[in-house]
Structures are given as structure tokens and as C-alpha cells.
Amino acid sequence: QVQLVESGGGLVQAGDSLRLSCAASGGTFTKYSMAWFRQSPGNEREFLGNIRWNSGFTSYADSVKGRFTISRDNTKNTMFLQMNSLKPEDTAVYYCAADYSGSYSTSVSEYDYWGQGTQVTVSS
Q1: Where are the beta strands (DSSP E) in the chain?
Q2: Distance between CA atoms of 47 and 36, rounded to whole angstroms?
Q3: What are phi and psi of 91, to 5 degrees?
Q4: CA-based, 20 to 30 A from 82: which of 44, 49, 120, 122?
């Protein structure tokens, strides 16, 4: 059974940086695509970006392009989300997700596995 565990969230000030991690286990992720989403109270889960595990190719939502960077460490089956120049509106629960079909989708419904989420709070 695939398991995803996020870590690295916390309370930071506007303008700070933070790096989230997503440790994956229970599968062979070569053909997967993986993604980061976030959700704040009263809002739908928002796609941030994704990565093809095999190639490392990434894509991003316009809302975070240039500030957020996704990477992965194949040797540790871990994906990262580097967040720079954080803003109060970045406050949310951040989730990682995995899609075993490798569809590289931006849609919540295409992802088969989800982590439990990690809270990021950005104070002004």
C-alpha cells in the first residue's frame, strides 16, 4: 500500500522560505507523477505543481510559478516543495499526492494517493 507522509510545515513570516517534504513508500514510483496541492478553509483544493518521477520534469500553477519549486530525491523516494517569498495568502494545509498512471494531471480526481497534509501559516 502506497503511503505518503508530508513534513516541514510551520509558522513563518511573510517573505520567509520553507521546504516541505513528502516521503513515499509502498510502491515503485518510476512511472508515477506526483503533485503538491493546498487547501485553505472554505476553498477547494488547489493544484500547485507536479513532477514526473522518472524524468523530473515539472510544471506549476501560475499562482506559484517563480516562487515554488518541486524536486525529488529518487534514492530516498522523497519529493520536495521549496517555497520562497511566502505571503499570508499562502497559508493553507499542503498535501502531496501520487498518480500511479503518470497522467501528470492538475486535477484532484486523477490522484490515487494522498498524504495527511501539513499546515503552513504565514504571518504578515
Answers
A1: 3-7, 10-13, 18-25, 33-39, 46-52, 58-60, 68-73, 78-83, 92-99, 113-114, 118-123
A2: 6
A3: -60, 125
A4: 44
